[in-house]
Amino acid sequence: MTQGPPSDDSGDADITHVTMTIELRRRKPERRFTLPTLRVVTGSNMLRFASIYPGDKVSIGREDTCTLSLPDPSVSRLHAEVRRNEAGDIEIEDLRSTNGTAVNGEPVKGVATVRVGDMVEVGGITLRLDELTLEELAHLARVVERLSLANKDALTGLLTRTYIKEELPSLLLRHNIAKKPVTALFLDVDHFKAVNDTWGHQVGDEVLQAVARLLVLSVRDSDVCLRYGGEEFLAILPASDDQAGWITAERLRQQVRAHNWSHYADGLRVTVSLGVATFLQGTESVAEWLSRADAAMYSAKRAGRNRVVVWKQGMGEQ
To answer: Quick check: pTM over 0.70?
Structure first.
């Protein structure tokens, strides 16, 4: 039964129609506070950074006293200075350095303007100007700190395989008690032997350093990153299942593929293959678990490389 408008038995009722206009105001999105930040994008100094605050000057050079210290022989002791002018533009000045300063490949003569997204060459070091939020800057600072701690792999700054024997069992026990999953990512640099054969071991080492930094940058502060051996890396993701592991691995794969590898050598391209497996609490050993993640990684390589594979029942462990 459908009920219509009320009626009057005495005849037609006068019906007054009232139109109301309701103004809906959309909430303006909050503007996130950002800071222009110069960040090293290549080499052993990759991820070192310096934010440029209003009224401040950022000195770049080899000396420890510089705001952005770059201990590289191609960088002069006091190489360049970056500042914001009264209009808010970012300017860079070369301080009569030996190997010069450039913006997007153009040598700096006197003072040059740098815009967000521009590439800055300081000697043999390449930096990029980005706008980073305070959260991004805090994460980047923690990443740089993690890579500088002692008892790490000498080349990449990551933990070594001793973590698997000495600390991983206690992490798994804690998460077993809390009924939370733990997932492993096995990563292998595709065609790494060809990188060494074509461009030499120096470039090969720089590739491993860059992959290590992209790995740490892609995961959470609570995740554990190891150099497993050679061109193989391992990440342990607490409180993550297969799906979360795949998302992290896929994000890392895309970042490695999109990285500007031509700064290391002309024609260089680098991709990685990743395998994902979640620890089966109470039914397998650590070695069996990591073997499954390794098997998934090799399945990715057999399928054409540059991809992520999650371990499935029956997957060969070759």
So the answer is: yes
Question: Binning pLDDT at 50, 70 and 90, where does residue 2 land?
Answer: very low
Each residue of 56-74: pLDDT tens digit? 899 999 999 999 999 999 9
Which letter does DSSP use for residue 82 in this model? E
Determine the residue type at 301. Answer: K
pLDDT at 32 over 60: yes
What is the distance between the alpha carbons of residues 46 and 260, in angstroms, rounded to a whole number?
Answer: 12
Within 8 A by CB and 6+ apart from 208, the residues are 155, 156, 189, 227, 231
Is 250 an active-site residue? Answer: no
Q: If you search the block for the tokens 């990715």, which residue do you land on?
A: 300
Q: What's the CA dihedral at 217, 221, 223, 226 to 10 degrees?
A: 60
Question: d(Cα 81, Cα 295) in Å, to the nearest integer?
Answer: 50
Q: Alpha-carbon distance 49 to 27, whole Å?
A: 34
Nearest-angstrom CA–CA distance, 32 and 181: 33
6 has a pLDDT exceeding 50: no
Alpha-carbon separation of residue 266 from 44, 181, 224, 262, 305 (angstroms): 18, 43, 33, 5, 22
Give which of 153, 160, 88, 92 is closest to 121, Cα–Cα. 92
User: 115: which 2 tokens?
Assistant: 């815009």
Catalytic residue among 121, 167, 231, 288: 231
Q: What is the DSSP letter of 77?
A: S
